[in-house]
Amino acid sequence: MADLENPALKHFIAQIGTELVFAQVLIRRSDGNYHLRHVEDREQLAESLRELRLPEVRSWAQHTEAGAFRPLKSAPNLKRGWRLVVADAEGLGMALDAFYPGAIADWHAVRAGNPSVTDFREFTGRQSGMYRITAMLNDAQAGRVIEACCNRKFCLKQRLWTVAGLGADSVETKSLIPCLEPCAVFMEFARKAMRMEQQEKLRWDLAPDEVKTLEAVLKEGVNQTDASLREGDVGAANNPRRIQLVLEKLKPLLTLTNRDNDV
Ligand code: SF4
Questions:
Q1: What is the pLDDT, as a whole number, of residue 2?
Q2: Start and end of every DR2241 stabilising domain (predicted)?
Q3: What's the rounded mean pLDDT across residues 19-26?
Q4: How is domain 7-111 classified at the CATH fold level?
Q5: Ligand 1 center to residue 104 CA distance, Å?
Q6: Where are the domains of the chain?
Q7: I need a surface site. Which of 17, 58, 68, 195 has the fewest CB within 10 A?
């Protein structure tokens, strides 16, 4: 590693030990090589996995198992069934950059203690054009939008940026890959969420048990794996993040419902 010029990669490799899980990629060091595979294929025999070549990694990471495009490479839907062997640090760096673009540099910035984190207010406050509207979300609304969009179901990056009333993510619930500022998927979702906040509200009286039915249906819907559904299409009423946002809004009602049942 003496000739490795990339300090971020050099420090990352020093952390690997015999193995390390980086989001959904398991990295093992053995025989002087780096062996990579999907973390859920940890116990699979090597012969049962397709051997990827380094130039294939980027296209492998482009689509989900169901064939849907992955606009967010940190989404927890990396295809399984592959393995990759790289012989040196440069190869490892290229592979990880193909799976998770920019992740090693961001990881290193956090480890070095100088990450450039931009919180929600600062980030949305400097938007112009179509995303200016996102700054109109109040703190509670922004908190719900963040909880929905950056939910572990949809993204494994550890969100370090915040808004008043909502803390950062932990490594344990997400991964070693930090998120330093709102991404394009988030901004598109936040724009749609603000547009929905501006709509005239409808009123609907629900019995506590009906609230629970609604919750059950929404929870089922949020886990859908319909290949025709584009993750980034926030205009679709059944977009999983939109369903999660409704679930976030339902939380106070569910708390009330459960409390009434406890009485
Ligand atoms: S803003 Fe949220 S969804 Fe986007 S990369 Fe960061 S944590 Fe993930």
A1: 46
A2: 22-110
A3: 98
A4: Gyrase A; domain 2 (3.30.1360)
A5: 16
A6: 7-111, 120-262
A7: 17
